[in-house]
Amino acid sequence: MRMFTITLLACAALTAASPVSASDETPPGKGAGTVLQLSITVQTLNAPSIPGPAPRGVTLTCDPDAGTHPTAKSACDLLRSVNGNAAALNVDPNAMCTTEYIPNTARLTGQWRGRPVSYEKIFGNRCEMIKTLGAVFAF
Is residue 102 classed exposed, middle or buried when 0-12, 13-18 and 19+ CB atoms within 10 A define those classes? Predict the structure, then answer.
């Protein structure tokens, strides 16, 4: 019995001293939350002196899924599938898009389960953006 207790205490000490890696996930509903700011900017190329449309923006919180995002649950489900790493999303790689060039810049900043996240990418058009990022930027 004494050997079992010493072994158990040694294991507990090692577990308590082991570092938490960046890939360790906070379970939903536990610890720090997720609050993200998302925006889309559409650039106009035909008349550079005329300002383009104002950027569109929403807020998104996950666990629980809410915010001003119109499809918060779908967006959070996608982000949960990649542990908050928007760059890892590739929702519909086989979708067909036109070759028109109307640049859409997708931006995401905030906290994912307590850790800072940031993402920005320029897509050739809205279709290219949605086929990659799906519901996360469908607003």
Answer: middle
Backbone φ, ψ for residue 110 (5° rounding): 145, -150
Residue whose token pair is 């550079």: 48
Residues 6+ apart with CB under 8 A from 83: 23, 25, 112
Q: How far apart are CA 6 and CA 2, in angstroms?
A: 6
Q: Are 78 and 135 in contact (CB under 8 A)?
A: yes
Q: What is the pLDDT of residues 54-99, one digit of tens each?
A: 899 999 999 999 999 999 999 999 999 999 999 999 999 999 999 9
Single-letter amino acid, residue 122:
I
CB environment 55-78: b (16+ within 10 A), e (fewer): eeebebbbbebebebebbeebbeb
